[in-house]
Amino acid sequence: MLLxxxxxxxxxxxxxxxxxxxSVVYKALDNLGAYQRWFGFQPNTKAATLVFGFFHxxxxxxxxxxxxxxPDGLVPDLLAFNVGVEIGQLLAxxxxxxxMGFWRRTAGCLRHAYTANVAMMCAGFxxxxxxxxGLFTA
Length: 138
Prior knowledge:
Strand content: under 5%
Number of strands: 0
Mean pLDDT: 90
């Protein structure tokens, strides 16, 4: 994100948001064990996280570039923004982990986990379709 803003590298936001939808579909399929069943191997989670993280970062940089922020103090402001985003993500992750810990203790967890991942995958496909429609019609 920082390099994208400092060097004014922006990518079409519809394209980036479609890739974010793809990352949701990727993770749902990963949770369901589809890659192991379909292809006989598990993709490298660290590599996928890095690739999708770069796209997410460029998506944020594209949005920040659109605000035309003054270059005075830009790097400290972006670092402070990024620290705030990371703290927010850690707080959200903590709440999600607590909720999932309770959910995993329920009798129907496995049945509902499959349904939740299918719903997450469908939402990802909807996001991809919505964003690609915007890309081609805007």
